[in-house]
Amino acid sequence: MRPLVRYRRSGHSQRMTQIDPIAVLTGDIVESTSLGRDRLESVFAALEDAAEELSLWQEADPKLTRFRGDGWQLVVMRPTIALRAALFLRAAIRRHGRDLDTRISIGTGAVDALPDGDLSGASGSAFVSSGRGLDQIRKTARIASDGSGPLRAATLLADTLTRGWSPAQAAVAYYALNPDRPTQSEIGEAVGSSQQNVQKVMEAAHLPDILTALNALETA
């Protein structure tokens, strides 16, 4: 699959401290013990590639940090795109195999410390909320968020609609979720398929409705 990237990094790095508010995504790999070391490492390689793409969305390093063997965490500097980012990260993994998946908890809020390195020394309400949310996520859920507003409602619906994504659907979603809004023909070129087939896959994956909801959430 060829990359579909039209974002460019700014030429400077940011020291991220005392940031308010942001979103924190905390996740773990589903049934990681059954994957074996090599496949687990390939999952994290896919996450790293997706985090690199996410850095272009927000022009800031998401600081993907691995915890506890199969756990991970990153920051989304624009909370409004947190759900889009979570779905994108899940698609990045799922497109490589039906048995590959991650659970993700979205926490939003203030940050007391966000060091230049990884997130091991980070603190703040967004980190607390995201970590607690992963501990409390329903067994069958894949994505959850804190609070009780529109983000939580949209997350519940998106989780239900995307839980059964096939690798082919996830591959299309990986490109369709790009906020630059690629055309179906561009997505088809990236995944090696026709525009007509991309349209069918998007409809089966509920992507038109999901993208409409994300756009509304992000511009509210």
From TrEMBL:
What superkingdom heads the lineage? Bacteria
Q: Known InterPro entries for this protein?
A: Nucleotide_cyclase
Q: What is this protein called?
A: SatD family (SatD)
